[in-house]
């Protein structure tokens, strides 16, 4: 059985807690709560606030994309690569709106892990079960070791 990596252990200790002290300042601003994490999977809940909305008072597409990108990024970090990996694309389909006060769950699943590239799929679902957005993203390995940048 593979031993648990430090990154995964770090996130497992945060289950049930607000994600406001992660290495991602943009993600910290969303006030998510970690619900689940395993190698290759993560789920985070968010509550839509007025600051997350567009003029129609529904979740802004850019904020939805940030939620997805941040959950994928954290899940990728928890997957255990010793190198920093970064998004090279993010394809998002916006399928329905979410209003102020609605609770959302964003989950990300690793579809394929390669030597240099990880492919992820993610979805935002509201309490009603309706899909708000779905996405796919590829993360590429950089030359930076996480230890070299203090992670």
Pick out its properties:
Thiol Ester Dehydrase, Chain A; 151 residues; globular; six-stranded antiparallel beta sheet; 6 strands; alpha+beta
Output the number of helix runs.
3
Mind summarizing the main beta sheet?
A: 6 strands, antiparallel
Number of strand elements: 6
Distance between the termini: 25 Å
**Rounded radius of gyration (Å):** 15 Å
Q: What's the CATH H-level homologous superfamily?
A: Hotdog Thioesterase
Q: From the 3D structure, determine the CATH topology.
A: Thiol Ester Dehydrase, Chain A
Give a description of the structure.
A hairpin with a 3-residue loop joins strand 4 (103-113) and strand 5. The model has no long low-confidence stretch (mean pLDDT 94). The protein has a single domain (6-149), classed as Thiol Ester Dehydrase, Chain A, CATH 3.10.129. The protein has helices spanning 6-12, 25-28, 61-78, and strands at residues 33-38, 41-47, 83-94, 103-113, 117-126, 131-145. Helix 1 crosses helix 3. The protein has a six-stranded antiparallel β-sheet with strand order 1-2-4-5-6-3. The protein is globular. 19% of the residues lie in helices and 40% in strands. The two termini are 25 Å apart. It is of the alpha+beta class. The protein contains three helices and six strands, in the order H-H-E-E-H-E-E-E-E.
């Amino acid at each position: 059985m593979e031993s648990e990596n430090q990154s995964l252990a770090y996130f497992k200790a945060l289950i049930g807690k607000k994600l406001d002290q992660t290495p991602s300042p943009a993600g910290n601003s969303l006030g998510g709560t970690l619900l689940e994490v395993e190698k290759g999977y993560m789920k985070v809940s968010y509550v839509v606030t007025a600051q997350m909305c567009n003029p129609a008072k529904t979740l802004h597409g850019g904020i939805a994309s940030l939620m997805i990108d941040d959950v994928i990024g954290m899940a990728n970090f928890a997957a255990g690569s010793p190198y920093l990996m970064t998004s090279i694309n993010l394809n998002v389909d916006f399928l329905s709106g979410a209003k102020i006060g609605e609770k959302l769950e964003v989950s990300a699943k690793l579809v394929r892990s390669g030597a240099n590239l990880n492919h992820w799929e993610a979805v935002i679902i509201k309490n009603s079960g309706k899909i708000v957005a779905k996405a796919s993203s590829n993360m590429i390995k950089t030359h930076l070791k996480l230890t070299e940048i203090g992670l």
